[in-house]
Amino acid sequence: MTTVLKLGGSVVTEKDRRETVDDDALSALAEDIAGAAGRATGSGSDAPADLAVVHGGGSFGHYHAEEWGVTTADGTHSATGALAIHEAMKTLNRAVLDSLQSHEVPALPVHPLSVGARDAAGDLTLPLDSTRRLLGEGFVPVLHGDGVAHEGEGVTVLSGDEIVVRLAESLDADRVGLCSTVPGVLDDAGDVIPTIESFDDVATYLGGSDATDVTGGMAGKVQTLLALDAPAYVFGPEGVSEFLAGGSPGTRID
Amino acid sequence: MTTVLKLGGSVVTEKDRRETVDDDALSALAEDIAGAAGRATGSGSDAPADLAVVHGGGSFGHYHAEEWGVTTADGTHSATGALAIHEAMKTLNRAVLDSLQSHEVPALPVHPLSVGARDAAGDLTLPLDSTRRLLGEGFVPVLHGDGVAHEGEGVTVLSGDEIVVRLAESLDADRVGLCSTVPGVLDDAGDVIPTIESFDDVATYLGGSDATDVTGGMAGKVQTLLALDAPAYVFGPEGVSEFLAGGSPGTRID
Fold first, then answer.
1. What is the per-residue DSSP string for B99-126?
2. Is the pTM of this model over 0.90?
3. ipTM, interface predicted TM-score of the complex
């Protein structure tokens, strides 16, 4: 049973305040993840569990990406710019790791800039030898939105959502969860849509996200999640425990 | 023309003082690398140059590896231990990157824990998609000794020297340079041996290194460098400019 859990950048950071971790939210998530890991193995939360975590950039990566004019398609050849984006994301990643480890989750980082590459068409290669071996050894690999070397563009943005999709496919994941600031995909009355099976069903409800985000909002997420083999769930922070316990919080996309 | 340059951990750190960068030595090396890059392209030191840099652990990684009993063969399943080793190496890597970037070398990090894996026999997989693309886009990838996920062992040590050998082979490097604290491989009179073509010629001269080092001394370096297709050079910090200019400082191993 392989699970991919995305922690939205706007959940683990204060997205409107530059480079600010939301420590309380992060700690609560770490506690829920630790509880689920302990339940899954029945032998304490530091025992093996096939869980890979991905987090977004929130107020860390996005500001730097905007400052350097870097998107998923338009890059920079400035090593200074690329390093600014990458180091900001590693700072956030360290906060996530520390919170998870303080709750006995055996989390270790996998930094995508070190791993992947895009060709001139933007297609991504992301060899997951490290991620797979870390999972096999009982660790919880924690990836994140990052920069990525891109043929002809220098370094472009690799979004957390793109990593989630790649992990789900490459690891043949059984379940994918996206923890967002909202309790699910909402209809125009503000209610959670329980199930989405086609984008046409919900296209009229979906706009952009409500704060700075160079990597797209809910519409893009739903479209990519529909393309996965595994069922995906979109839920708020209160849905993490239920998702990791095998339940169906928020919106199921399949 | 692809060049791999190793900066020994004992060159860029004060190896007997825990987690202490040798700022003066590092800055002088960065200046020499910048000068060589500018000369190679004839158009300023931030222009493309096929140079990959690797640095060792010095007083950063080795202390933590010893504390956690981690070697290249014996690992840890403690995420705390593995993260301690990895984060110490990333701190040193950041100092190396900052020094190189301050001299206009377009350096970006590649963290091996994120990339590679060992199987149960200890054989290393290290997919270099990111390193290759960074080189192709004109960046100078900077790798380092690190931890690596190892089947059945958790996380073991991946030495800078092992990375150098892998880079040299996988990138089909033309020249490999190892910048050490000594001006070359020394004979029993303390003189630099100009050329080594077989280990038997020098086996009696080579002992271990003179300070804490979990990853072996000069004897191991010479043996692995002899196995490379590319010529390798062992030299002191004063030999970096000559090496990058195409000369033969110190000891040539081929």
1. HHHHTT--EEE--GGGT-EE-TT--EE-
2. yes
3. 0.92
Residues of B in contact with A44 (CB under 8 A): none
Which tokens belong to B183? Answer: 């001006």
For the residues B3-29, what does the mean pLDDT come to? 93
Tell me which of A137, A146, A158 to substitute to probe the interface with B (most B C-beta atoms closer than 10 Å): A137
Sign (positive/negative) of CA torsion B51, B216, B185, B229?
negative
Could you tell me the two tokens for B187? Answer: 């004979």
Burial of residue B149, with CB atoms counted within 10 A of its CB: 0-12 exposed, 13-18 middle, 19 or more buried: buried
Task: Please name which of B71, B97, B230 lies closest in space to residue B154, comparing C-alpha atoms.
Answer: B71
Domain regions of chain B by residue span: 2-253
Residue-level pLDDT at B41: 53
Helix (H, G, I), strand (E, B) or coil at A70: coil
> For residue range B141-150, what is the model confidence (pLDDT) as tens digits?
999 999 999 9
Q: How far is CA A178 from the centre of its chain?
A: 7
CB-CB under 8 Å, A127 with B137: no
Contact B130 A118 (CB under 8 A): no
**pLDDT band for position A216 (cuts 50, 70, 90):** low
For the stretch A80-137, pLDDT in tens is 999 999 999 999 999 999 999 999 999 999 999 999 999 999 999 999 999 999 999 9
Q: Do A130 and B151 touch (CB under 8 A)?
A: no
User: Terminus-to-terminus CA distance in chain A, angstroms?
Assistant: 18
CB-nearest partner of B130 from A46, A106, A117: A117
Domain B2-253 has CATH 1.20.1270.50: no
Distance between CA A51 and CA A242 in Å, rounded?
15
Q: Are B179 and B242 in contact (CB under 8 A)?
A: no
CA A148 vs CA A25, A126, A169, B98, B126: distances in Å: 28, 10, 19, 19, 17
